[in-house]
Specification:
The chain is α+β, with helices and mostly antiparallel strands and 45 residues long. The protein has one helix and two strands. The two termini are 21 Å apart.
Length: 45
Amino acid sequence: MDASENEIWTNYQNGENQIMKSIEEKQAPLCWQKYKGTYLSFFIV
C-alpha cells in the first residue's frame, strides 16, 4: 500500500489515541507522516 494513495488521514489527537490503544494491545502500528508532499513510514514500538 502506498501512502500517497490513502485518502484517510487523522489529526494528531486521534492518531495519539490510536497509538496508545495499540501499545496497550502490545501491537506496533505502522504510521505514515506526510510533510510537504513526501511521506515517511515508521513503526511505533
